[in-house]
Design goal:
- With 500 residues, this protein is α/β, with parallel strands linked by helices.
- Helices cover 39% and strands 17% of the residues.
- The protein is built from 17 helices and 14 strands.
- The protein has helices at 8-19, 49-54, 94-111, 134-147, 160-170, 177-188, 192-206, 241-262, 264-276, 292-300, 343-348, 350-357, 373-386, 406-415, 430-440, 457-466, 487-492; strands spanning 26-29, 82-89, 114-122, 151-154, 173-176, 281-286, 317-322, 328-333, 361-367, 394-399, 420-421, 446-452, 468-475, 478-485.
- Strands 7-8-6-9-10-11 form a six-stranded mixed sheet, with helices on both faces.
- Helix 1 (8-19) packs antiparallel against helix 4, helix 3 (94-111) runs parallel beside helix 6 and helix 7 (192-206) runs antiparallel to helix 8 (241-262).
- The longest helix is centred in the middle third of the chain and has 22 residues, at 241-262.
- It starts with 7 loop residues before the first helix and ends in an 8-residue tail after the last helix.
Length: 500
Amino acid sequence: MADMGKNNTDDDALDRIIASGDARAFSVFGRAQALHQDGSDSNADGDQLDREERRALRRVAGLSTELDDVTEVEYRQLRLENVVLIGVYPQGSADDAENSLRELSALSETAGAVVLDGLLQRRPHPDPSTYLGRGKAEELRDIVRSLNADTVIADTELAPSQRRALEDVVKVKVIDRTAVILDIFSQHAQSREGKAQVELAQLEYLLPRLRGWGESMSRQAGGQVGGAGAGMGSRGPGETKIELDRRRIHTRMARLRKQIKGFGPAREAKRANRSRFAVPSVAIVGYTNAGKSSLLNRVTQAGVLVENALFATLDSTTRRTRTDDGREFTFSDTVGFVRNLPHQLVEAFRSTLEEVSYADVIVHVVDAAHPDPASQITTVHDVIGDVGARDIPEIIVFNKTDLINDDQRLLLRGLAPNAVFASARTGAGVDELLETIERMLPHPPVEVALLVPYDRGDVISMLHRRGEVTKIDYREDGTYVEAAVSDEIAAQVTEFAEAR
């Protein structure tokens, strides 16, 4: 979590909380930077001008943004600054809960927050009213006041009633993990499709959480109620402000779904073009911040934005490259995953994730330096299953191996015996990865034997580029070639066919 010095008031607050009741029931763990630094950037990442533009606007520390009226939370733009994280865990899962809270800290930092502290409470189930329980919520209020925090973030998706009840106790804005992830996506989406997908997910999340207050709850008058002498029976049923907002959201969601559907034909046309020319595709998937974009840059020099932040890139990127024997294939980078990924985002980005289901090989990138790589692998496999890609051949790549020692490498080998160990920053293991991809790429189904005249060098070039040449012999009357090609290429070169 973000490293900040504690003053005497902070120490008194922590001592008071720890001294009251069972310390393990409401533990405060130390502050540490959630996003580990992995050294300088690789030259393969290019100039990274997008990253400099993203960093051009920064908040000024010390300026208060405290929310005066917490009832307006759902109608204000999300602004995160000084935050306290909270979580609930059952007996025996403290380590997993702490890893999850540290991940939430990294998410909050990526969204622009300064994380002041993280609190975990041990109880079988979250309190249905205030999430933590009334007494612990009051202790949280004291900590929030002592740290001068303006936001509390829960490490789960809160019910609307839980948010309202907790806000009433702590007197500051309360949001949940889903809201933070949606805010990050809103900041980082660049393409028209990405922005539409994020907005749709935001509206789906907002819809059940709308609430009105004051005059907003009164019905708008209908009929002649405002006129003089209107009399009884003239008041129409009207429409509440919250009903009007819901109707507007439903209308906007319908337009967004239609807009996202409109992007489909262009993507399908590109996919059909690759299929027609028999270009295999490789999809890069993995946990967010595992190094997928860095790996794509290392292999293809794509120059995709690379940043030590969660969900730094959302828009999928596809680049062509070729194997050592000359066969072309495509590399497609996809949006990263995270534990408890909001279902709204999975649905909204389903069209983007379709690239995974159409891939010939999946390269699953795992952060080797992460404290819990097994949970990362499980999370990614769950999302791969959701998009129907479980049967596609998979290569697990443990990235960032320059940050681990031999003991950690041995443990990782136990998780995935056939995995490739690589470092996108140093380039170590990348050649082995490309060799593994080359072995797993599908081979063309049709074997041909051709005698190509020397003035048709374009045919030889096409066979090397789109097929798999197994034998070549330069004869007096032309170039004899044996190759495996697609059905379409075989039909184009029938005039050069020769019996073996």
